[in-house]
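Data deposition worksheet. Section B asks for the primary sequence of the deposited chain exactly as it was used as input, without tags or linkers unless they were present during the calculation. Section C holds the resulting structure in token form. Section D is free text for depositor observations; keep each observation to a single sentence. Incomplete worksheets are returned to the depositor.
Section A, Depositor: J.P.
Section B:
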Amino acid sequence: MDQAVIRRKLTGTQAVQPPEGGVERAFPLALARATRTRHACNAEVAGLRLHRYSLTELLDLPPALSLIALLEGPGEAIGVMMIGPDVLAALIEAQTHGHVAALPAAPRRPTRTDAAMVADWVDAVMTDLEETLGAEEDLVWTDGFRFASHLDEPRPLGLMLEDAPYRVLAVTLRFAPGREGPLVLALPAEGRGRNPQRAGPPPLDPAQGALFEAEFREQVMAASATVDAVLCRLSLPLDTLLGLGPGDMLPLPTAQLDRIVLEGADGQGRATGRLGQHRGMRALRLSAAGSAPAPATPVTSTAPLPVAAALDLPQTGTG
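Section C:
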């Protein structure tokens, strides 16, 4: 078991479980589109894993004989794309021969020419990635990175990269049966890029807004509302209440026919009125509409008085 595996087991490093979508969806699309657009060949991604590694763990990841592309990002951030030798060979063949050969190329050390030939492809991948993530949270740590230079072996990375956590995307990039290899993208975990630009609701057409307002007002004004005309509130012992029968009389010591309170469904007073008649019906003439009179205070009483408690007031009002 190599040292990298042992170190991960000791530190308890686990793969980050990304949400559905985000960079997990965008990175394979960016790789496939950049390969098809730049080199007119197809590539698909298998085995994508998203990790969060320290710098020490990151230095153990480069595949042997891989091309290490250094990426410059916002706020002087530096990331890396590690292109395995099989992937590098396939990209070079697609440019020089117009297709990827059926048999793998012999392993060799990457050169400055190789780096120059894949620089535009790397930039195309990163551009497509940030455009796809324009409205998602992963844009903050993937935004703004472009090819800057390359290394043909990983030893200088420890001096060039910041000692901080990195988000690492590891994939297998497959061009054809038998032609596949590893590719790793590592960027600083604490992003310094743009915040996602989420699209707001489309602007409302003024004519439609006025029509909606008129229809809404009509619906509201046509809605029914129930109000209670409160002459008096009375509190009785439970045994007295249970013993009431037809013909019994209840005391109404605070009842005033010229100060009847109209209450809404919330029990709050909305207006006051005077009891009267209108076309042969009992009615209320509003005397203080729109005010908020104090609610009637319940009066506790045990002695019956010759005043009827129930007044059959129809819901008709004048004002």
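Section D:
The domain at 224-318 is CATH 2.30.330.10 (Surface presentation of antigens (SPOA)).
The chain has two domains: 3-188, 224-318.
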